[in-house]
């Protein structure tokens, strides 16, 4: 496919995403199924165009003169070529000739707007590329830095890998993946970072022996740091209450050197299914998976026994907008309210398993105070036997003293963001039972 034909396909897919409110990944998959002539490079290039457009949707639409709620897929895509890819009006016009599956030629108005690339007078949510209804929430969390944080979340994310210390060390992984030019992560002692290409394509890790043999796992540096900050030690009894696919479970198993016991649980048994193959591939032998069994209390024997209970809480996922840009536009206020209820319920459940002197780690991939500090403060108000731990001290004890700079000014916990730390957005709070 020509670059112009790829652009036309991306506009078609974006129309499907917007018109039917479908997840972009599903729309892209369906497009590939219906157009089997497209090769893997074509599909990857089309996906990259769609993701870039969704990251910059608000500012791209404003640049093209679209009224709120009246954005078209073509306008968003053309604006994104200027905003996200830095193409000028002539370069974009060269792709829009109307010939051989190319998009229709630019109108005089489209060319003028692309030539001006003017965002003067745009409101904060446009400049930050986040939903207007979240403006107050983000301002509460970040003040006058909300636009900066939003723009950082609208950029492409690198590929972060966690070295599995049960299979080798970071030097071994650096050597095995040297052809990808990996760099040690800024904060995580286990992390490697691989840059994506100019077209947004990530390396094909499934073809890498180091990945296939379990030496490295895909995991954002922020998620690695969340595990590191828990302070889990060999010999501990640990409950990962919302384990899902097991990313943090695997990190904890390596921290604990396969000593002690980790119980991986999740209220949705389907989310746990990938963990079995991942545990085997990583060589993690100190993990028991406790899948739900109807009304049976599969965790009853752990009440009051755990040195650490990790709550990787269900949340809106605003901290992962770099990787899931369509999620920010599909998110609705009702979803935030529902997540807050679930977070309160999960924290209350977790308290049952923490032994005296043990700790509870509350983690979200959210930027919103309503899901982070507010939830921890509500929990503490209802549980007088729990106290917050100082996160600067926890960072130093974990061997990552630089993380002390990210202690939250809004209450208990620590905040990581793309703008401040170069990670996905994460919140981590540690509480101890008196």
Q: Overview of this structure, please?
A:
Strand 5, helix 14 and strand 6 form a beta-alpha-beta unit. The protein folds into three domains: 120 residues, no CATH class; 60 residues, Sun protein, domain 3 (Alpha-Beta Plaits), CATH 3.30.70.1170; 213 residues, 3-Layer(aba) Sandwich (Rossmann fold), CATH 3.40.50.150. It is an alpha/beta fold and 434 residues long. The relative contact order is 0.10. Strands 5, 6, 7, 8, 9, 10, 11 and 12 form an eight-stranded mixed β-sheet that branches. Strands 2-3-1-4 form a four-stranded antiparallel β-sheet. The protein is globular. Helix 1 crosses helix 3, helix 3 packs across helix 5 and helix 13 crosses helix 14. The protein is built from 21 helices and twelve strands. Helix content is 43%, strand content 14%.
